[in-house]
């Protein structure tokens, strides 16, 4: 190994050039990120000097638009695909020709049976025996089933597909959960980029500063206020835990207090813990974007264990607390006094269960939406 530079001098110079080029690319990326942050952050423009709330409002509107587009695109399928699936289901239980190959109303038992759907109980007058009549009823019922207009059956399939997109299938809805999680992550980082302390740390080498920030993880107190550590972060964990619940049929339909309920909330805790770790230390985190932990603050490391522990644990407690409020206060008390579609019910649902309301917005639904009613 010591003789490599003597034997291969050109390879050493090539590696040095590659390393220098990587450093330049890294610096260019950090400077571009700093330029974007300075564009949307505090500046001489009066529009942005109104405070950081304006970018947050724009981000919220963008979230609603993106979630609506994602849900609409996921529910859309070509009509030809729906017809082929319908024809396959019909042929799997019948030996008749495909339904989409025969005109609507066209019967195959005679010219007197053309045009129109026959009732299931219709029996020709020349059939009097019980066994023959029963066979006729079953036959006519089977024909009536596949004589239904394709438009109605396609509409039912589209409705079932919409339920599947919302996580109504037995499998976990990974696409919806990941999309909603990244939208939430984008909102938080958009707000952080408006802060001057975040912008100051965007000019250095991206990967090196990220690594140094992660290495400074130590202690419990990160120097933030009690409001941020013990109120804001629990609400953040509540939103991420609710994202898991909204995209899991078992978690969403579990009866409050049952074994399925507690098992699903434990899984929501794991999901929230993974999301919190990524937000603090991952590639799209406070450590990588803004380099939280790179410098000491008030004699303490801003990268501490408090957020990694408080966010998923108390966040899961927030999820359970909101389930309790929804089950005992909203469902069994307030909604018995007012109509479920009244303004008071919608307002109480949105105010008493804030993380549920916000997670509904992330999936393109009204804040007062409830999965079971």
Describe the structure.
This protein has helices spanning 4-7, 9-40, 46-49, 53-75, 79-93, 130-146, 150-165, 174-192, 196-199, 206-215, 226-246, 249-253, 259-281, 306-337, 343-352, 354-362. It has 373 residues and is mainly α. It has 2 domains: 53-75 and 172-362, no CATH class; 79-161, no CATH class. Helix 11 (226-246) crosses helix 16 (354-362), helix 13 (259-281) crosses helix 14 and helix 15 crosses helix 16 (354-362). The radius of gyration is 30 Å and the shape is elongated.
Please provide a brief summary of the model.
The protein has 373 residues and is an all-alpha fold. 65% of the residues lie in helices and 0% in strands.
Quaternary state of this entry equals single chain
Radius of gyration (Å): 30 Å
Biggest β-sheet description: none
Low-confidence spans: pLDDT under 50, at least 5 residues? 40-54, 74-82, 102-123, 142-148, 161-165
Structural class: mainly alpha
Order of helices and strands: HHHHHHHHHHHHHHHH
* Shape by Cα distribution: elongated
| Strand content bin | under 5%
Q: Mean pLDDT, as a whole number? A: 73
The count of helical stretches stands at 16
> Domains counted in the coordinates: how many?
2
Topology, please?
Blueprint lengths: L3 H4 L1 H32 L5 H4 L3 H23 L3 H15 L36 H17 L3 H16 L8 H19 L3 H4 L6 H10 L10 H21 L2 H5 L5 H23 L24 H32 L5 H10 L1 H9 L11
Helix pairs in contact: 4-8, 5-7, 11-13, 11-14, 11-16, 13-14, 14-15, 15-16
């Amino acid at each position: 190994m010591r003789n490599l530079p003597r034997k291969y001098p050109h390879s050493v110079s090539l590696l040095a050039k590659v390393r220098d080029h990587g450093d330049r690319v890294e610096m260019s990326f950090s400077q571009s990120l700093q330029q974007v942050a300075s564009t949307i952050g505090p500046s001489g423009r009066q529009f942005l000097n109104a405070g950081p709330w304006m970018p947050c409002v724009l981000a919220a509107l963008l979230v609603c638009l993106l979630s609506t587009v994602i849900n609409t695109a996921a529910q859309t399928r070509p009509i030809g695909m729906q017809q082929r699936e319908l024809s396959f289901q019909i042929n799997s239980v019948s030996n008749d020709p495909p339904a989409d190959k025969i005109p609507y109303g066209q019967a195959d038992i005679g010219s007197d049976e053309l045009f129109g759907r026959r009732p299931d109980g219709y029996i020709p007058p020349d059939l009097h025996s019980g066994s023959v009549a029963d066979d006729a009823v079953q036959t006519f019922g089977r024909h009536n089933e596949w004589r239904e207009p394709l438009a109605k059956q396609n509409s039912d399939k589209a409705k079932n597909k919409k339920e599947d997109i919302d996580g109504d299938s037995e499998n976990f809805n990974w696409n919806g959960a990941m999309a909603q999680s990244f939208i939430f992550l984008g909102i938080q980082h958009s707000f952080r980029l408006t802060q001057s302390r975040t912008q100051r740390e965007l000019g250095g080498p991206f990967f090196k500063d990220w690594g140094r920030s992660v290495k400074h993880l130590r202690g419990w107190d990160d120097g933030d206020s009690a409001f941020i550590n013990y109120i804001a972060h629990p609400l953040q964990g509540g939103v991420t835990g609710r994202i898991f619940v909204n995209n899991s049929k078992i978690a969403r339909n579990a009866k409050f207090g049952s074994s399925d309920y507690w098992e699903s909330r434990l899984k929501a805790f794991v999901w929230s813990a993974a999301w919190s770790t990524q937000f603090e230390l991952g590639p799209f985190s406070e450590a990588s974007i803004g380099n939280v932990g790179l410098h000491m603050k008030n004699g303490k490391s801003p990268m501490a264990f408090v957020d990694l522990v408080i966010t998923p644990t108390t966040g899961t407690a927030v999820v359970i607390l909101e389930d309790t409020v929804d089950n005992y206060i909203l469902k069994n008390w307030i909604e018995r006094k007012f109509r479920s579609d009244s303004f008071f019910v919608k307002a109480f649902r949105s105010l008493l269960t804030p993380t549920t309301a916000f997670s509904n917005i992330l999936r393109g639904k009204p804040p007062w939406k409830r999965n079971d009613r």
